Amino acid sequence: MDVHSSPGLWDALFLLSNAIVAGVMPKETPRWWVKTRTGGTWRDLTIADDASEDYFHDKLRMTRTVFNDILAACIPFIQRRLTHYREPLQPDHIVAYALYRWASGKTFDSGTSSFGIGRSSGIKAVEDVTNAILAAYPDKIAIPTGCRLLQVVRAFSGKGFPNCYGAIDCTHIYVDKPANAPSKNYFDRKQQFSVVAQVIVDLDMCIIDVFVGYPGCVHDQRVLRNSSLLKRAEAGNIFNPDPVVLPGGVRTTGYLLGDNGYAPRTWIVVPYGGSEQTEDIAFFDTRQKTTRGVVERAFKRLKGMWRLFLRHHKTNMNNLPQQFTVVCIIHNLLLEAGVAFGERLLLDRDHEGNTVPIDLGLQDLAQPVSQASATRLPSLSAMLCACKCDRNYNQAIRIEDG
Prior knowledge:
Elements: H1 7-22, H2 41-45, H3 52-60, H4 64-74, H5 91-104, H6 108-113, H7 119-136, H8 146-158, E1 164-174, E2 194-201, E3 207-215, H9 220-225, H10 228-234, E4 244-245, E5 251-252, E6 255-257, E7 268-269, H11 279-292, H12 294-305, H13 320-337, E8 347-349, E9 355-357, H14 377-389, H15 391-398
Parallel strand pairs: 1-6, 6-7
Antiparallel strand pairs: 1-2, 2-3, 4-5, 8-9
Protein name: DDE Tnp4 domain-containing protein
Pfam families: DDE_Tnp_4
Keywords: Hydrolase, Metal-binding, Nuclease, Nucleus, Signal
């Protein structure tokens, strides 16, 4: 008898397949290479009570409500396939680990164990959450328009800089020696490996533009020259097409505040600089530096909360720009939700267990200018006009970058 044509055998196979699909038959014992999941940090985060809110904020830098909002936005873009060996990781588990990785700065080897997952699962989780947040919040980082633009311009005008759109500066993201890129290109002037991030913020520290990815050896001016910001600004796609006439007759469509690392342009106002200054010029430079200091305070909050981008870390250079952009999106979300930045996030412990302030690698932060302190606005506006009309300033605008 041909066993392959036996009706009884085919019936048995049919019944067996139905039993497996219906869940009657037990799952096969997981293989030895399937990592057993434990509790740790993840289990503690799932405890919902009043005492756990501080723990939740400490580990993920946000409230449970904000986390749930981000999770809901990411779920449509995070999918996991059911395998024969075990249940897939749930979206809340995946999103929580990615946030923990960015907040703590821990390596994949040490961070994944506290979430009960393997190293490869952790790498995949960060990649998936990065792509999900970029897809869920495509317009969260954008030059303001409409009513929001009016609010931004009015705030800067209150500090003495009418029709100003924001403050621009660069920061360095420190990494270990790159393995998949020419390492000598990433060696910066501080003798460290880094990547440059160009950021624009408004007076609320909200990030309205970001460009990241150039090696640490590249100067801020060259980063600007190769960014889309320059092309959009020169093409008239950023600032108001209708010029605003400032006191003194100067016409401007809008501008940014920058430091002396940038060449003066019609849309970037930098300090006069120099060691010998008149009283008016010194006042203008001081006010410009103080107002521009909002970008340094934004870096302080960003890097203080998301420690991965503060310390040296091993990373894939191919997706580092996307990860930093995602953290900037979360930065804006937390500002909108009113999540406070605790100064304790600027403290760490040394090798002896002593509490020490962390080194943010930033300049001395200027104190914020209060609205009440902007009383000399006529003279400050006049200085801004003089700055934009100054013969040397206009000559500098025409100089080719190099």
